[in-house]
């Protein structure tokens, strides 16, 4: 769900020559263009802080209570709290907090650890010696790929990633987030049919770091449909003790050696990106905020049952986030279906709860996006109305 919402945010930049004036905080005036350039050019800072992620997507109520633990299902609705620490370079720690549990990801250069207090298990991800050497050579040729955890920086990057003709970008004065003065950048789609009404980015006036991102639905102007922002933040390098992982006493430790893609695979992926090649079975309709992605040959029954092969030809295109630590989080959340769903979650019950029957198949409708799963094995997704997807089907 967070990934879908992040994709829906993606479209922006540059704007009419408006100006944010200095107010009582005494901040210097800035234009939207200047603020966008500052955000894009800012280096990743060292910091520590608390992030609250809140989803008000208008999804149907689930047939079970919200899990008390640090469970990714909780990201579909309500609020989740994360603690983050990073040196701004190769070391970071992220903890997804639950009422009575924690899921942590610690990243240190070419290795990462995940820890779930629910099952008291540590997973240690490493590369073999040859791949470590290759990784070091690859990093010399360019900057490392950044992760896509649900942080204000990641959400802001998505919102500021695309062409100026898709949106109007303006400034809405200044605000205070986590006790820090910030400019507010407002991205408003030019599309009149997208479900996204606007995206508001609060940018730290001193460091140009996004402190909060709010995504508003075109259908509800009372509160953001999706919000991720700091409640407290300190711009300083965390102590070595915080960024160093030690397995808790008594925890089980599982070792996983992660294969680095071959040079041929990396070259092929880069070529696909350059050519704009889509994976087999994927079709894109429309553009900008009205883009709809269609995936063919989806084994719906297999997906509901948690079968990782259910996407058929797309199975070879493994889901990826980017950085080692973020990828470890994704992979560990994508558990072996034979072990059962986290927290005894019944995927069939979840599917039935969040979808409704329509003539074409089953529909997921929210305030920011729609998903249609057709009876003939196609999946259509976009930040558009259900009627738009049904018309394309």
Compile the SSE list and pairings.
Layout: H1 2-9, H2 32-41, E1 47-55, E2 78-86, E3 91-97, E4 102-108, E5 111-116, E6 121-126, H3 129-140, H4 152-159, E7 167-177, E8 180-189, E9 196-204, E10 210-217, E11 226-234, H5 240-243, E12 252-257, H6 263-275, E13 282-285, E14 292-295, H7 300-305, H8 324-333, H9 347-354, E15 356-358, E16 361-365, E17 370-374, E18 379-382, H10 386-392
Task: Explain what you see.
- The protein is 22% helix and 31% strand.
- It is of the alpha+beta class and 393 residues long.
- A twelve-stranded mixed sheet has the order 7-8-9-10-11-1-2-3-4-5-6-12, with helices on one face. The chain has a six-stranded antiparallel sheet with strand order 13-14-18-17-16-15.
- A hairpin with an 8-residue loop joins strand 10 (210-217) and strand 11.
- The longest helix is centred in the last third of the chain and has 13 residues, at 263-275.
- Keywords: Signal.
- It comes from Cellulomonas biazotea.
- Residues 1-22 form the signal peptide.
Descriptive terms for the model:
18 strands, alpha+beta, about 400 residues, globular, outer membrane lipoprotein receptor (LolB), chain A, single chain, LolA/LolB/LppX, Sporulation_related, signal, disordered N terminus, six-stranded antiparallel beta sheet, 2 domains, MucB/RseB N-terminal domain-containing protein, about 20% helix, twelve-stranded mixed beta sheet
The CATH class label of the largest domain is Mainly Beta
- CATH topology descriptor of the largest domain: outer membrane lipoprotein receptor (LolB), chain A
Shape: globular
Overall number of strands: 18
CATH architecture of the largest domain: Clam
| H/E series | HHEEEEEEHHEEEEEHEHEEHHHEEEEH
Enumerate the spans where pLDDT stays under 50 for 5 or more consecutive residues: 1-24, 65-69, 144-149, 311-344
Radius of gyration, whole Å: 21 Å
- Overall pLDDT: 76
Walk across the major sheet and give the strand order: 7-8-9-10-11-1-2-3-4-5-6-12
* Assembly form of the protein: single chain
The total tally of domains equals 2
CATH homologous superfamily of the largest domain - what is it? Lipoprotein localisation LolA/LolB/LppX
Distance between the termini: 22 Å
Signal peptide: 1-22
Keywords: Signal
Protein name: MucB/RseB N-terminal domain-containing protein
InterPro entries: LolA/LolB/LppX, Sporulation_related
């Amino acid at each position: 769900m967070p990934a879908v919402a992040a994709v829906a945010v993606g479209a922006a930049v540059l704007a009419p020559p408006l100006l944010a004036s200095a107010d009582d905080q005494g901040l210097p005036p800035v234009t939207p263009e200047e603020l966008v350039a500052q955000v894009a050019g800012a280096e990743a800072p060292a910091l520590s802080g608390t992030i609250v992620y809140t989803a008000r997507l208008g999804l149907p109520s689930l047939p079970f209570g919200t899990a008390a633990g640090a469970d990714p299902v909780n990201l579909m609705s309500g609020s989740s709290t994360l603690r983050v620490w990073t040196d701004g370079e190769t070391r970071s720690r992220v903890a997804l907090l639950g009422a009575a549990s924690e899921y942590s990801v610690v990243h240190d250069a070419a290795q990462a650890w995940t820890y779930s207090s629910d099952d008291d298990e540590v997973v240690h991800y490493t590369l073999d010696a040859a791949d470590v050497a290759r990784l070091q050579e690859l990093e010399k040729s360019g900057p490392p790929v950044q992760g896509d955890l649900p942080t204000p920086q990641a959400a802001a990057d998505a919102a500021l990633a695309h062409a100026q003709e898709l949106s109007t970008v303006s400034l809405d004065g200044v605000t205070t987030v986590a006790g820090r003065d910030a400019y507010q950048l407002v991205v408003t789609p030019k599309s009149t049919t997208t479900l996204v009404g606007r995206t508001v980015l609060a940018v730290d006036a001193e460091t140009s770091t996004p402190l909060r991102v709010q995504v508003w639905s075109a259908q509800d102007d009372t509160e953001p449909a999706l919000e991720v922002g700091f409640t407290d933040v300190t711009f300083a390098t965390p102590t070595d003790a915080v960024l160093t992982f030690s397995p808790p006493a008594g925890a089980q430790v599982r070792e996983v050696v992660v294969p680095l893609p071959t040079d041929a695979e990396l070259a092929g992926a880069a070529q696909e990106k350059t050519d704009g090649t889509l994976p087999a079975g994927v079709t894109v309709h429309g553009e900008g905020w009205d883009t709809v992605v269609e995936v063919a040959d989806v084994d719906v029954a297999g997906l509901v049952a948690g079968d990782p092969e259910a996407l058929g030809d797309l199975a070879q295109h493994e889901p990826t986030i980017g950085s080692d630590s973020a990828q470890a989080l994704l992979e560990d959340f994508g558990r072996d279906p034979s072990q059962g769903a986290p927290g005894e979650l019944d995927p069939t019950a979840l599917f039935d709860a969040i979808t409704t029957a329509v003539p074409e198949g089953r529909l997921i409708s929210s305030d920011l996006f729609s998903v249609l799963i057709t009876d003939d094995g196609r999946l259509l997704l976009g930040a558009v109305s259900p009627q738009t997807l049904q018309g394309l089907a």
